[in-house]
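Work Package 3 (structural annotation) set out to generate three-dimensional models for the target panel prioritized at the project kickoff. During this period the team completed the workflow that converts sequence records into discrete structure tokens, so that structures can be stored uniformly alongside our sequence database. As a representative example, we reproduce one entry of 241 residues exactly as it appears in the project archive.
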Amino acid sequence: MRMESLLVVMFVGVLSACAPIPVAQKADPVVTVRCVYPVISPLAETKELQSKGGINISLAPNTFECVDSVIRTPREIPRNLFDFNETYSLVSFINAGAGGKPEDYRLVETTATPVYSAKPNKVAFRVKINNQMPRVFRGAGTVVLYNFAGKNSSVTSQDYADLSNLIVPPRTEMEVIIYGPSFQAIPENTTLGIFLYDVVTKTDNAGNIVEKQNFEWYYKYQTQFKEAAREVTTSRAWVRR
């Protein structure tokens, strides 16, 4: 081999040794995620619209949709696991104006894990109240109770706050949503009972309560699911201590 060619080969080898060494990136893993959602249908003996006194109330399951979200989990990469590219990028990052020394930074890897879930994630019903009384209807004092397979399920007044705060003028109707327990707290296949207690159904001319009634509905509660393929992604970034 001629001397000139040998020098060129050696020179190229030195340049290659100084350049950043590309690291093969692993393909993001694909996982199957599952969205569990309820299917709620009224039992034969249950009427969706019920009338007592001067109040008509209809109840219907709220709609649910499966939505995507992610859970982000960060972790610090130990310095003894840095590869050449990461060390090189840190020096470039500092030289580009970030300032400080390499010891001032830590490398954080964040894993984004996909989640596929129903929204809302709890039982929900649309309550429509039609007021045929000559006076204003007020939802204050009404108590909501859920019963699954013969067992009462506790909910807070906040779950039906819109009903408690409802005011319906005479000869008009309004709709609100009430919520129940989360899906995780309910058996997959069961009978669901919903009760509205102490609903004002009659008042006198002065607006004083004359009569209260209870309303009840029964449903078949089942769960179904949808599956989808989603990627688990990871990213790394330099974070100053």
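DSSP finds three helices and 14 strands in the chain.
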